[in-house]
Design goal:
Chains A, B, C, D: Reversible hydration of carbon dioxide. Chains A, B, C, D: Its EC number is 4.2.1.1. Chains A, B, C, D: This is Carbonic anhydrase. Chains A, B, C, D: InterPro entries: Beta_CA_cladeB, Carbonic_anhydrase, Carbonic_anhydrase_CS, Carbonic_anhydrase_sf. 4 copies of one chain form a homotetramer. Chain A has 9 helices and 6 strands; from the N terminus they run H-H-E-H-E-H-E-H-H-H-H-H-E-E-E. Chain A starts with 8 loop residues before the first helix and ends with a strand. In chain A, strand 1, helix 3 and strand 2 form a beta-alpha-beta unit. Chain A has 215 residues and is α/β, with parallel strands linked by helices. The mean pLDDT of chain A is 96. The first copy, chain A, has 2 domains: 37 residues, no CATH class; 177 residues, Carbonic anhydrase (Beta-carbonic Anhydrase, Chain A, 3-Layer(aba) Sandwich). The radius of gyration of chain A is 19 Å and the shape is globular. The first copy, chain A, has a 6-stranded mixed β-sheet with strand order 2-1-3-4-5-6, with helices on one face. In chain A, helix 7 crosses helix 8. Chains in contact: A-B, A-C, A-D, B-C, B-D, C-D.
Chain lengths: 215, 215, 215, 215
């Protein structure tokens, strides 16, 4: 790997600042986390988007959340075909090895991935239909969600599809036998959330109404 | 989705604390981020491990880092076969749509995924060899790294394999044509890092020596 | 311009050091910044004083802060009279073209400009009262601040007037229609700061109390 | 000033990191700087542009450079009319009070202010011609430079005008009696520089040729 570069100096400087303050003040906790392993209470599945700061919004500290982040916070359906499924591996590890008590699926407003899905499904982004488009193929997971929002007025489709990304992922989570079993035994609970970036709002999915409501 | 539950109250409470403080003091920035879109400087690929807090270590705020997190911070080789590749989709979006200037691959000590890979490759975890094991199939990506560390004394194999997870991922990144092209044009740089959880240390990969060195 | 000289060699030497290290490690970012333009999150208005290092104190890298520096970090009142107003031009560009989310006004201890204002207003520096004194006329902006501190014991007047330089500038910023509008829409926030050079302290202005408090 | 907000928490965190490292390691120097006042060797006049990091490029530490930053690094001609001239005040203070030995005027590539001047002077930005445009009136300083580049091919006009911003400013500096006097006595030297943001290059103005040359 002759192409790697040293870390940019502004990050080196910030790291040393963290080491001298946050790390120093919590050294004992970091040692315990290293020696005894992690024991997170929750898994969070969120988008890679730089505007979503799940640890900040929920005041989480090191050791609290096992966090998987991918484009548009999607979970694919259970498919044990021997191929590589990074999201399914993360869910499997969280539920069977770490035995987390909660899985939070956190969607958000202004999602570029969801917008891409909308463009693709409505025929406006043929490049995303190509076999070689990783983003397009990934967003295929959300096609069942598109079918549920396509009749809505166009100005409300993206928000609705962002929320479908949460609902479809929750549905797909229940297709994993080890998830369904823990949920049914009452040892694991699933939560759907949607974050409005600009307004700082968070809504959660309520299965009784099938809708989202501010927390 | 009749199985979703409302958000646990301790998280609701923390959220309201964040809204009244961090959000309130940064409202203008969140509005800008929502209206004008994200333009992160770097993509970070890190592990889902709850003990790795990349935004904290590098003092990053909302909008700075596009973050993908998966088990053992792995990037698979380029394989445009029309199947779902969440990590490849995230890399594609970061490089081609967001045009990030840096990709940081951040490994860490005490990594459960890497330990699993070590156990599997050395014949001590037959369950991970099964077709149905998502974690096992995902850790297959790191097999080329195992071949490079298997002759080491057993007590130093895990650290070495954690660092191979970084190196193998950097190597695989360069198999993506759009990554290699941007790197060669000097418009994207790759960085390999390894975080010692307990000691709070960070080392970066130096291609000249092939080794890692404290920053 | 027959008077210009080549750059002193100690600076040439340092530049080559920067080029071989910081530039080389961040080349991709510099290319992006050049090609895609700046999008700084904040504008900083600070003093020219050589002891104030705003990028160092706040760990900022290239591209983060749009920085205007003048004597005593002053913003004059809005006055669109067709004459040259360098500070007003900088504020206009930051808010209307770059759409920054924050303006930080950063004052500091031991400020020579503020001391000059104090001497002038208390009758001890007649040369600063002259029409031809650029420093004197510039410090006129701070006269409303002097009126608020002149009854204080003399030993505490300079600190108080340095903080007034921040407050008066924040007040004057709100006289610019485009600043007031963005602030009221929640798309721009103003922050007042004062840096103690010797002790390395930073205090911020809290409007609830009208005073400054360590951050 | 009821509109000021507390400092965003990411900057508070970074500040504490700086305090615990850079400040702590240099505490004695900061105390001396506070107690004995600044004695900078050079004044730098640069653009507010967030991509220009003069302290980084020239490895400058606290106390070395007295820095004035405005749109397009311009110095207006000497005009002691009793009105407010922030740039002239900074030059006066640097030369007569601080007795700096060098003034560096640092221009740069991709300058938005210079682009605005070009648009305005070539008739493509009528809004910048308005009395109420602070940016337009400020860029009037560069009109004499436009006259020297307007016959060039359009693709090379911006670079040429950026360099004229340096030359015009050097010329205007010499109209200040206290600058001319110090230059003629050999106690002050002026330097013209231009920074290529993307390539990391720096060129200096050579009066013998009237052109710029890489340092």
């Amino acid at each position: 790997m002759q192409h790697a570069k040293p870390l940019p100096s502004y990050l080196v400087q910030r790291y040393h600042g963290w080491k001298a303050t946050t790390y120093k003040d919590n050294q004992a906790w970091y040692h315990r986390l290293a020696d005894e392993g992690q024991r997170p209470r929750a898994m969070v599945i969120s988008c890679c988007d730089s505007r979503v700061h799940v640890t900040s919004i929920f005041g989480a500290d090191q050791g609290e959340f096992f966090i998987h982040r991918n484009i548009a916070n999607l979970v694919p359906p259970y498919k044990p075909d021997g191929l590589q499924h990074g999201t399914s591996a993360a869910v499997e590890y969280a539920v069977t090895a770490l035995k987390v008590a909660h899985i939070l699926v956190l969607g958000h407003s202004n999602c570029g991935g969801v917008q891409g899905c909308l463009d693709m499904c409505s025929g406006h982004a043929p490049e995303l239909e190509e076999t070689s488009s990783f983003v397009g193929r990934w967003m295929d997971i959300l096609r069942p969600g598109y079918d549920r929002v396509k009749e809505l007025p166009s100005e409300s489709q993206r928000d609705a599809l962002e929320k479908q990304a949460v609902i479809v992922s929750l549905e797909n989570l229940m297709t994993f036998p080890f998830v369904a079993e823990e949920v049914e035994k009452g040892r694991l609970s699933l939560h759907g959330l949607w974050n409005d970036i600009g307004e700082g709002g968070v809504e959660h999915f309520l299965p009784e109404t099938g809708g989202f409501q501010p927390i």
